[in-house]
Amino acid sequence: MYIELAHAANKVVTELVEVKKSNRVVILAESICDRTAVDAMAEAVYAVGGFPIVIWYPTAVDVVVEPPEPIAQALKSCDVVIEFSLMYILHTAAFDAALSRGVKWQCLTGLDAKAMVEVIGKADNKKLDRFGSNFRGFLDRTAGSQVKVTSRAGTDVTFVYQKGIQDQSIPCPPRDRATLPGQTGGHPVLGSTNGRIVFDGSMWPPKDLGILANPIELIVKNGRIEEIKGGKEARILEKWLSDLKDPEMYYPAHIHVGFHPQCKQIGVPLVDERIFGCICVGIGWWTNGKPGHRPKSVKHTDGEMLNVSMWVGSEQVLEGGRFVHPELRELGEELLKTRA
């Protein structure tokens, strides 16, 4: 598999983040990260003329924890960051400082060698980018419309769509961060989300969750989570939110639609939330009180709904996890043909 891994790492540095000659590239890796994947990335950076700087550090207890000062200094002194750490440091002060200095930040959080081969090495990034651009264009043209989402697991929720989600175009520009191609979406208008959200794919954090054996049901009224229903997994989420003691953690912040044909449920958020035809809902706003946004929350979590149907205004976009809108159907089927 190492040849295939080298190919995937090369696609990261040449297509996703475009490492230039003499770029100083910090590769962040916690103690639980896959050393084979990290080493392959360092080799790929060096092969194109970049200077790889691999930083290993103990795994954090949670996401969005400020890194030690030596790491924070390294992050804002480089040209590119490639982050493998599952306990990501996105949305920290160190992250914000790095972006303000012009750093390009590529998120590969939680990916091991096998996942890199599957979702990067086998991906057709041009087709993914083309579909994403078309889908974003459709969503942005319909901003202000009511969106309805249902699922086989019982989701039945509505919200008003507002554009403004980060652009996932390739390659990642300076002063920005990118994850992987294969999803796009936007924010709900504040106070507009009402109904039942049922996560039946995966949810993470908290770290005791992942692939869900039992669904988690959220009852949302006027944009706020008022009740959490379900079994053991629901109680874990409920306690985690309660222990954070942040009222801002009860507000759905974004809705993403996945369209990556190579993604399968593995318990890693970066992969799971890009499953073709799923919808990911993020809870806890990571922006800092921008117009139309809520104040920044202390943490952020994402949950996935599988096999969804979706309407934007009177136009149906998804039916049972397949794209059916005339502007997206053909491109969606082309993507599915690339599934390995």
Structure write-up:
The structure is a single chain. This protein is α+β, with helices and mostly antiparallel strands and 340 residues long. The protein has 2 domains: 2-121, Thermophilic metalloprotease (M29) (Thermophilic metalloprotease-like, 3-Layer(aba) Sandwich); 125-337, no CATH class. 28% of the residues lie in helices and 28% in strands. It is built from 9 helices and 18 strands. Strands 5, 6, 8, 9, 10, 11, 12, 13, 14, 15, 16, 17 and 18 form a 13-stranded antiparallel beta sheet that branches. It has a 5-stranded parallel beta sheet with strand order 2-1-3-4-7, with helices on both faces. The protein is globular, with a radius of gyration of 19 Å.
Topology diagram in text:
Layout: H1 2-16, E1 24-30, H2 35-47, E2 51-57, H3 69-75, E3 80-83, H4 93-100, E4 104-107, H5 113-121, H6 125-141, E5 146-151, E6 156-162, E7 176-178, E8 183-188, E9 194-199, E10 203-204, E11 216-221, E12 224-230, H7 232-244, E13 252-258, H8 269-272, E14 279-283, E15 301-305, E16 308-312, E17 315-319, E18 322-323, H9 329-337
Parallel strand pairs: 1-2, 1-3, 3-4, 4-7
Antiparallel strand pairs: 5-6, 5-16, 6-8, 6-9, 8-13, 9-11, 10-15, 11-12, 13-14, 14-15, 16-17, 17-18
Helix pairs in contact: 1-2, 1-5, 6-9
How is this structure best summarized?
Helices cover 28% and strands 28% of the residues.
Main features:
340 residues; alpha+beta; Thermophilic metalloprotease-like; 2 domains; 13-stranded antiparallel sheet; 28% helix; globular
